[in-house]
């Protein structure tokens, strides 16, 4: 087994969390996998894995070495792809991630159009509500709704979204329209659970000052919170793209717009440091203008003051 094959074995053991599972994944014998890892540890002069009869886990040195191995193997795959022409024509599998609701509403339709435009590209999507490490999870492009930290990722801005407070016209007719964040104490609020189960605070103003609304319902899904607001159960906090259709249709109304925090940017991000494959460049070029257009359409304005007054 050559050195690169040994690195692949080590990565498989770490990712599969065991020698037997790695052996099945690689279609090798368990003793061959064990010998490869032992030889690797002897060569680097450090223990990379803690082994017990029930589990295998990385040592601190193993965690660092795993990240380096993944980078080396990915560089090799990309070099092979470049030599084979994958950088000249969009082809192969493209993996794209986004948050659950944004992915469903805006990314999924783009992916279908992209498949039609690029018949040699296949797409794998991952729509989850967590920050995904692109390299660790084998992903090519992410849509990030956040202020980006300094990183090795290339970012293409495609717009921004607002954090809005919405309620149904029926609810506002019964309870009145809050004029300032302090008025939230006199309203029923629908909260989104954060770590520990408590409702996340609502932030207002340019300095994003936290406010604690009078929460009567806590849910762990933006879809559920919006559904409760549509049913007239209270005020909900959402991102503008999530409620755009309901606001335009008059099913929800934006309140406290003058107290909103600054908009949150939206970017397409992908790893830099290596020449991007044609499929990645093609998708970014395809998706960026379409997402910009979608985000502009998904930024509903609040009702004018006169219209709000009629609902009091």
TrEMBL record:
One of its GO terms (molecular function) is sequence-specific DNA binding. GO terms for biological process: DNA-templated transcription. The keyword Transcription applies. Keywords: DNA-binding, Transcription, Transcription regulation. InterPro entries: LysR-type_TF_proteobact-type, LysR_HTH_N, LysR_subst-bd, WH-like_DNA-bd_sf, WH_DNA-bd_sf. Residues 1-59 form the HTH lysR-type domain. CDD domains: PBP2_CrgA_like_2 (cd08471). PANTHER family: HTH-TYPE TRANSCRIPTIONAL ACTIVATOR TTDR-RELATED, HTH-TYPE TRANSCRIPTIONAL REGULATOR. Belongs to the LysR transcriptional regulatory family. This is LysR family transcriptional regulator. It comes from Caldimonas brevitalea.
């Amino acid at each position: 087994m050559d050195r690169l094959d040994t690195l692949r074995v080590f990565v498989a053991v770490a990712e599969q969390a065991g020698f037997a599972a790695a052996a099945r994944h690689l279609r090798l014998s368990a003793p061959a996998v064990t010998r490869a890892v032992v030889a690797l540890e002897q060569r680097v002069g450090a223990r990379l894995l803690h082994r017990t009869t029930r589990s295998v886990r990385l040592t601190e040195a193993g965690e660092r070495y795993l990240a380096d191995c993944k980078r080396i193997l990915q560089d090799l795959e990309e070099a092979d792809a470049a030599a084979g022409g994958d950088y000249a024509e969009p082809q192969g599998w493209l993996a794209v991630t986004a948050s659950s609701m944004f992915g469903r509403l805006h990314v999924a339709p783009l992916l279908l159009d992209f498949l039609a435009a690029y018949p040699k590209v296949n797409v794998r999507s991952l729509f989850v509500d967590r920050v995904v490490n692109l390299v660790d999870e084998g992903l090519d492009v992410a849509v990030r709704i956040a202020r980006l930290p300094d990183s090795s990722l290339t970012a293409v801005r495609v717009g921004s979204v607002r954090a809005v407070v919405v309620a149904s016209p029926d609810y506002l007719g019964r309870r009145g329209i809050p004029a300032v964040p302090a008025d939230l104490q006199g309203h029923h609020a629908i909260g989104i659970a954060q770590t520990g189960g408590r409702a996340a605070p609502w932030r207002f103003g340019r300095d994003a000052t936290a406010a604690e609304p009078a929460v009567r319902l806590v849910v762990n899904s933006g879809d559920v919170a919006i559904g409760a607001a549509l049913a007239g159960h209270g005020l909900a906090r959402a991102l503008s793209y999530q409620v755009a259709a309901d606001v335009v249709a008059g099913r929800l109304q934006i309140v406290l717009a003058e107290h909103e925090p600054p908009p949150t940017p939206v970017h397409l991000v992908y790893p830099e440091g290596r020449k991007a494959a044609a499929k990645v460049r093609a998708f970014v070029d395809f998706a960026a203008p379409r997402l910009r257009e979608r985000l502009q359409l998904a930024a509903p304005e609040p009702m004018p003051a006169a219209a709000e007054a009629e609902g009091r």
